[in-house]
Predict the 3D structure of the following.
Amino acid sequence: VQLQASGGGLAQAGGSLTLSCAASGIIFRINDMGWYRQAPGKQRELVAVANSVGSANYADSVKGRFTISRNNAKNAVYLQMNSLAPEDTAAYYCYGDIVEGPPHGRSRANHWGQGTLVTVSS
């Protein structure tokens, strides 16, 4: 199973960006799917997570500005980021709690996508 993230880039303060992440491979079910971020010199932190029925949780710092959504048919998760601020600058990583493999050999594991860089200028 692999997760491929895209959509990072440069934005001005107050602007918007949308991140996308799609999982591929032999996937039976994706439980939680979400986004973390890591700014230079800081620890990785949870940004938002959504379960398989779309119930979401957000970091306090992004509530009201970011929206997470999923497309279960595409094994994908998205992060709509509005009202961006310089403190949102970070590498953003998608992850999935995935049940994978053929029927007689399934396993469950957390998978991570490659980081996608978001830079917000003031």
The chain has no helices and eleven strands. The chain has a mean pLDDT of 96. The two ends are 38 Å apart (CA to CA).
